[in-house]
Amino acid sequence: MLKMLGKKSICCGLLSLIAAAGNTAAATAGGTDEPAEVTAATVSEALAFGKITLGLRARSELVDTDGLETVDLTSLKTRLTYESALFQGFRALIEMDDVTHLSDFEGGVADPAGTEINQASLSYTIGGTTIKYGRQRILLDNQRFVGGVGFRQNEQTYDGLSISDSSLANTTLFLAHIDNINRIFGEDSPVGDHENDSYLLNAKYSGLSAGSITAYAYLLDNESAPAFSTDTYGLRFAGATGAASYVLEYAAQSAAADNPSNFDAAYLLAEAGYKLGPVTLKGGYELLGADGDEGQFITPLATLHKFQGWNDMFLGGGSGNIVGGIEDVYATLGTALAGVKLSLNYHQLSSDDTDASGMDKLGSEYGFEVGGKVGFAELSLQYSSYIAEEYSVDTDKLWLTAQAQF
C-alpha cells in the first residue's frame, strides 16, 4: 500500500471536521427534525422562511506514483446553502463553497483552495414541470455522460436554463441549454470555466415491467475547448427481476461544432448483477471506442471518478478517454455489516484499437472502500491500486474522508 500512510495526514483531516462539526452540533442541538414545507404568502415570507444548511467535508488524499513525488494533501470543504420557501411556484437557491488546504502541498490533486458560488438559481414549478435558471447541479442517469464530479472538493456545476417534466405517467423529461461549465479546477484556473453553447436532452420511461428505458442526445459545443465538442445519441435500458439486475446501453458519437477532429465512435455497456443475501455481485463490460487515429469516444462532462477504477488513470486531459479507446472488464462486490458498508472492485483495462494506441493491455486496478456513520459524522476509507502493463506507471491512492451536514 502507500508509503506515505502517516498518522499526521490522516488525523488532520478527520480532527478538523470533527472539531468544526462538534461546535456546530452543540449550537444546533435539539433541531433534528426536518421542518415541514412552507408555502409563503409574500416574497419577504419566502425569504424569511428559507432553509439554511451547513456541510463540512475533510479529506486526506495520498498519492504514491512509482518514480515520482508523493502527494499528501489534506483539505476541508465548507458548504453553506440557502434555499427559500416556495412562493407562487418560485424558489431561490444560493450555495457557497470554501475549500481550505490544511497541509502545505499545493499541487498534484484537483482540489484547489478557494471560495466561490457553487449554485445560484431561480426555479419555477407548475404541476409536474420545473424550470430552473442559473448555476445548478445536473446529474443524469449514472453520471457517465453528465455529472457533478461530487467526489472532488470543488463540484462541477452548470450555468444555463433547464426544464424537468414528470407530467406524463412513468415518464421523466429533461432539457437544458448550457452557457458555461464550472469545472473542478476552480475559477482562478485558466481551465476552470468552459464557455458553451450546448444542449442536453434526456427522456426516461419507467412503465415497463422489465425495467426503464432512457433515450438521450447530448449536443456539446464547447467554445473554450473545441476538441470537447461532440454530438452523442444513445439508449439505456436498466432493470431488475428478483435478485438479478441488468443494464444495457449503446451510444454513437461524432465530432461537432468547431472540433478540429473528424471522427465517429461508439460506446457500449453490458452489466449484470445478483444479490445473494447481504452481498451484491456485479460484472460488466464497458467500451469507449476509437475511430483509428481520427479520435475516440469522449465524456468530458462525466463524473469520471466513478468509472474505469478510482485511480483516475484515464482522464485524458478531461476528455475521459485516451488514443485508441478503452475496454474495461470489471467486477464489484458490495455488502453492509452492522452499519458498515464495504465495497470491492477490480478492473482489467485494454486498448480498443491497438494500431492507433500502440498498446494492448493497458493495466489493471483493484480497490476497496469501507465506510459508516459515527455519531453525526460519516467516515470512509477508499483505496485504489493501479498496476501498469503498457500504459502509465504503478500508482496507489488513498482517501480518508469525514463529513457531516447540519
List keywords for this structure.
18-stranded antiparallel β-barrel, Porin, mainly beta, 406 residues
In short:
This protein is mainly beta. The protein has 3 helices and 18 strands. It has a single domain, classed as Porin (Beta Barrel).
What would you note in describing this structure?
The protein has a single domain, classed as Porin. The protein contains three helices and 18 strands. It has helices at residues 7-27, 43-48, 354-357, and strands spanning 51-65, 71-83, 90-101, 114-126, 129-136, 157-165, 171-182, 193-208, 211-219, 230-241, 244-255, 264-276, 279-288, 326-337, 340-351, 361-374, 377-388, 395-405. The longest helix has 21 residues, at 7-27. The radius of gyration is 22 Å and the shape is globular.
Based on CA atoms alone, the radius of gyration comes out at: 22 Å
**What is the share of helical residues?**
under 10%
* Overall shape: globular
Would you identify the CATH H-level superfamily? Porin
As a percent range, the share of strand residues is over 45%
Number of strands: 18
Overall CATH architecture: Beta Barrel
Pattern of helices and strands: HHEEEEEEEEEEEEEEEHEEE
Q: Which CATH class is shown?
A: Mainly Beta
Tell me the span between the first and last alpha carbons: 35 Å
Tally of separate helices = 3
Give the low-pLDDT segments: 2-32
Domain module tally: 1
Structural class: mainly beta
CATH topology: Porin
- The overall average pLDDT, rounded, is 91
Main sheet summary: 18 strands, antiparallel, barrel
